[in-house]
Specification:
Layout lengths: L1 H5 L3 H4 L11 E5 L2 E4 L4 E4 L2 H4 L8 H11 L14 H13 L5 E7 L2 H18 L7 E5 L8 H6 L5 H5 L6 E4 L13 H19 L4 E6 L15 H11 L3 E5 L23 E4 L11 E6 H4 L21 H16 L2 H17 L7 E7 L2 E9 L4 E2 L5 H13 L1 E2 L1 E3 L2 E4 L7 H22 L3
Parallel strand pairs: 3-14, 5-6, 5-7, 7-8, 8-9
Antiparallel strand pairs: 1-2, 2-3, 4-10, 9-10, 11-12, 12-13, 12-16, 15-16
Helix pairs in contact: 4-12, 5-12, 9-10, 13-15, 14-15
């Protein structure tokens, strides 16, 4: 295993990774993954929250195989095209008619989808005669990708230290993270606090220089940070009042994860741009898309040099990606996977709430099949329980021994299973977590 680790970037992307923590997947089916030793695990990660339709769905595999026999690859660039990219665009826009989306730009994944949104936002304002609107606002602890632009609008605390200076003109505000706030704000008070900070930030930056506010409907990577009900409608209102575009990063929340087809529908909010990847085709082929509203698309109504979009990623609109997406959308619609995420997600959340009084659990939160356990070594002080602590290590070992895969964020456990998860699978996960938490408490010397 050590030799394997030396052959790839993994030791550099995750310094100090113990060889025994490297999980080597060999196959997967449905909501289960099998490792190289033949042991089967319940997958409560769906990869990185993208295998929405489940592993090894024959419908998607067969769609890819059929496309391979006709047209494996062809560039969607300049005057080159293939029919499937247009068929898929029409279907996506049909699904997004409620949001009044008008144009689709394909990409290779989520990072590219966000990078394209940032470019489009800046170019939109140039076309509208406001070239000084180039800056962005986003949340701390957000994740929008690892390109230089998408990383700049992400709220990674360490990014400037590792890669700075990052994109100039980006400001981050506190997220709607009730558990992490010292003022105890929650609900309407939290919405007001976050909205007030956003408005003050826009005023301080001068809204005449701000292109867009960028946010995930629910922040995923740092632990399912779920905003209060009033926040997103207020954000939409502030963007309108200060003439700022709203970019919704739906890479994780899109296509059923939250129990709605799109995360913004939880609050009936219409963004100006939306970014998709991951669940768009359940990750079977790397694929992404940026869609823009009628308002934004209208700025490109005149054919002139300034309206040239410098975009042409090699694999954007890839035929196999399009075929996988069409088959995935069929499954999402036919099996009502968003509805299953809502129902099974509530069942899972009810089970997780029974763990809320455990000494190592600070908070339980979730929406749809996007749930988190905030872990703590001191409930009263809300002291985080980091990944490397003895108790956290014991929890990881216990879950592994019980055959349950989870994803960790800096201070807890994130659950993002396939949307095909059954209630019995959710119950198995909750029971495994209960045992693992007790094992972690024992490792701390508690009882």
């Amino acid at each position: 295993m050590n030799e394997l680790l030396r052959s790839v970037w993994r030791p550099m992307t995750q310094p100090g990774l113990p060889p025994e923590d490297l999980f080597m997947a060999e196959s997967a089916l449905g909501v289960h993954v099998t490792d190289e030793s033949g042991r089967r695990y319940l997958d409560m990660t769906a990869g990185l929250a993208y295998v929405n339709a489940g592993h090894a769905r024959p419908e998607i595999i067969e769609a890819i195989a059929r496309q391979c026999s006709r047209l494996v690859t062809f560039p969607s660039h300049g005057s080159n095209a293939h029919r499937l990219e247009f068929d898929l665009a029409r279907r996506l826009l049909g699904l997004l008619s409620r949001e009044r989306m008008a144009r689709v730009m394909y990409s290779s994944g989520g990072t590219d989808a966000v990078e394209n949104a940032l470019k489009i936002a800046r170019q939109y304002w140039k076309l509208r005669g406001k070239p000084e609107k180039t800056r962005f606002v986003s949340f701390k602890f957000s994740h929008h990708g690892l390109g230089l632009g998408s990383m700049s609008v992400s709220g990674f605390p360490g990014a400037p230290r590792l890669y700075g200076p990052v994109l100039d003109g980006v400001r981050h505000i506190d997220p709607p993270y009730a558990y992490g706030r010292s003022d105890g704000a929650d609900g309407d008070a939290l919405a007001l606090a976050v909205a007030t900070e956003l408005e003050r930030t826009l005023q301080w930056m001068d809204p005449g220089t701000v292109a867009a506010f960028v946010a995930e409907p629910v922040q995923c990577a740092f632990g399912a940070i779920i905003p209060p009900a009033k926040l997103w409608p207020v954000i939409r209102g502030l963007c309108d009042a200060y003439d700022v575009l709203l970019i919704a990063d739906e890479v994780v929340t899109g296509f059923g994860r939250t129990g709605e087809w799109f995360g913004c529908r939880l609050w009936d909010v219409t963004p100006d741009l939306m970014c998709f990847a991951k669940g768009i085709n359940s990750g079977y082929v790397p694929f992404g898309a940026t869609v823009v509203s009628e308002r934004v698309a209208d700025a490109w109504s005149e054919a002139r040099f300034e309206a040239t979009i410098l975009h042409g990623q090699t694999y954007a609109g890839h035929p196999l990606g399009c075929a996988a997406t069409m088959a995935n959308l069929d499954l999402l619609e036919r099996e009502d996977l968003a509805g299953n995420a809502r129902r099974t997600g509530e069942h899972l959340l009810q089970g997780l709430r029974r763990l809320a009084d455990h000494p190592l659990v600070g908070e339980v939160r979730g929406v749809g099949l996007l749930c988190a356990l905030e872990l703590t070594s001191d409930r009263r002080a809300r002291t985080p329980l980091p990944y490397g602590e003895r108790a956290a290590s014991a929890i990881r070992r216990s879950l592994h021994e019980q055959g349950v895969l989870v994803r960790w964020f800096p201070s807890g456990i994130l659950l993002t299973p396939p949307l095909t998860l059954a209630a019995t699978d959710a119950d198995r996960c909750v029971e495994a977590l209960r045992i693992a938490l007790d094992d972690g408490l024992t490792a701390m010397g508690g009882s």
